[in-house]
Amino acid sequence: MKQFKQIAIPEGKSRLANDLDRIQPYSAAEIITYDTNPDSECELLERVRAADCIIIGSYSKLDGAIIRQCPSLEYIGLAATLFTGQGANIDLEAAAERKIAVTGVSDYGDYGVVDFVVSETIRYLKYGTRNRELRGQPVGIIGAGTVGSLVAKSLKVLGAEVSYYSRSSRPDLERDGIHYAPLHTLLQRVSILSVHVPRNTQVLGKEELDMLTDGTLLFNTSVGLPIEPEAMRKWLNNPRNVFVADRDGIGYLEEEYTNFPNITFYPRSSGFTEEAERRLADKVEQNLKAFLTGK
Q1: Per-residue pLDDT tens digits for 250-278
Q2: 70 exposed, middle or buried (CB, 10 Å; 0-12, 13-18, 19+)?
Q3: CATH match for 110-266 among 3.40.50.720, 3.90.1150.200, 2.40.240.20, 3.40.220.10
Q4: Which segments in the chain show pLDDT lower than 50?
């Protein structure tokens, strides 16, 4: 079987840590791994400079300056969703200039996010200050990709009145009675709002938060906070408003925001379940095999 000469996994606590035995056959040399994340671009470069294959997660940024200083690099495998534009953590133009293949993984952690949003919604309604039903509750979904659509359909099945805002309409959602609404219209009609947008995409500022009903339950499981930070602080000063996020959804502001009593913070990535870990390893391995075999 064709192999890479050297695979490097530069991030500590890699999502592939439990599956290295599956990846090792694709590297002639022992895979280079680390216990900690690189704390600078220089350290990241030193960890990957000699590799012809790099596998990274979503937390390190592989920019053009690093890519251009890796003379043997042929392949970059992202053990996460591959975003473009401002959400990308790989300089895709620099990779294309060098004719370096870049692959990502999708649809591996969606179901855990759905479980998290649905279960926390029910917990809030049943065990908060009042005992309420999900049936008939006006719910808004921002971002109707795979995860947003699954959340919308799951809440609809349980009786919620669900509408969505997205860059494009979704006929499959419309057929299920989940209707599109312009963003500002959506914000003014819902009491529960769940955000599912690409990495580091800001969609809510002061104007949008001011449109929400007093006492709104707001979810974010997108990678990075999609809300303007100062507007978020002011919104949280109203103790009736509630914000629920996992580790991905609160990002670098974890220490500051978890001091608010009206935040529920889940200190893990809600989508990265044991089942998702297996799906991720399967897809990373499939991508490696496809590149090496030319399929």
Answers
A1: 866 777 777 889 999 888 889 999 999 99
A2: buried
A3: 3.40.50.720
A4: none
pTM over 0.85: yes
Give the whole-angstrom CA distance, residue 202 versus residue 50. 36
Strand order through the sheet with 75-78: 7-8, 53-56, 75-78, 101-103
AA identity, residue 274 = E
The dihedral of CA 119, 271, 202, 180: what is its sign? Answer: negative
Taking residue 237's Cβ as centre, other Cβ atoms within 10 Å add up to 10
> By C-alpha distance, which of 101, 114, 111, 157 is closest to 134?
157
Q: Could you read off the pLDDT of 37-81 as tens digits, one per residue?
A: 999 999 999 999 999 999 998 778 899 999 999 999 999 999 988
Q: Domains of the chain: which residue ranges?
A: 7-106+274-293, 110-266
Is the fold of 7-106+274-293 the same as that of 110-266?
yes
- The identity of residue 203, as a single letter, is V
Indicate the CATH number for domain 7-106+274-293: 3.40.50.720
User: What is the C-alpha separation between 13 and 81, in angstroms, rounded?
Assistant: 18
